[in-house]
Amino acid sequence: MKAVLQERFGPPDILRLREVDRPRAGAGQVLVRVHAAALNPYDWHMMRGDPYAARLLGGMGLNRPKHRVAGIDAAGVVEAVGAGVEGLRPGTPVLGFCPGAFAEYACTAQELLVPKPERLSFEEAAAVPMGAVTALRGIQRVGGVRAGQRVLVNGAGGGVGTFAVQIATALDAEVTGVCSAGGTEMVRSLGAAHVIDYAREDFTEGHVRYDVILDNVGNLPLGRLRRALTPTGILVANGGGSPGRVFGAIGSTLALAAVNTVTRHSLRPIIPATPGGPAQDDLLAVIALIEAGQVTPVIGRTHPLADTTEGIRHMEEGHSRGKTVITVR
Length: 329
Known about the structure:
By secondary structure, the protein is an alpha/beta fold. It has ten helices and 15 strands. About 25% of the residues lie in helices and about 25% in strands.
């Protein structure tokens, strides 16, 4: 099968499309014939091997990548199941976390998959797992957003932000989205009551105060973000970060914990969804919102499997609109 391989840590140019053996489903595993995969900041962190602290914790390998085949978000059709797998059978369309998703086939644990909603194409389904689950955790689980609250999503036009705006809107919150000028109409169409072009207006200097701020960008000091909160407001920091950070989400967690000791605000980190943690309940919650017509994936651009490197390079520039999807079949 064809797969995108990485033999060492480095920039996108290290990725190579190669022929490799097809994986086999072991006990409790499912082999998925991949139709589409999505790009996430997770992928560039794994590709570059940062934050460096994650190497020491064993999540990505110390001197070389732990997994040779890149990618994590996928949608496709069940090809085969291992011993002990129940509820999934060959031919079932699925989506979920599939390590090695940038390939024609990928193997994953049964609990990291859910059936694909019929209303979604495979490309739309691939855009769901990490972005939507991270948004759900940030808005609902960590932020505790309730009806009538004022919620601001910084980075509202990106992969997590587009889901966050829709999820907060579904909870009957009054949503403000912060994005680039080119994304304002899209963010408004997702349900945002107010949209701010960050190049023309600094929301931390305005008179409006927010009950919850989900910060997907990490480009503003904590002091300025706190100015935009109500006295008992909650700042949710998405730890996805950007390439080249030493501590990444780990550093954000420590910093917020320290600030929490000296402020009335609640400053809470959100560790983005990863394949190592419990994900199926969150995936099912997102699927319920999709089935109800309250959430729809936003795809900014697509690339064929052979152009995965170009897709990651574009995403690293930090101006992606919605999700970038790799079409495999």
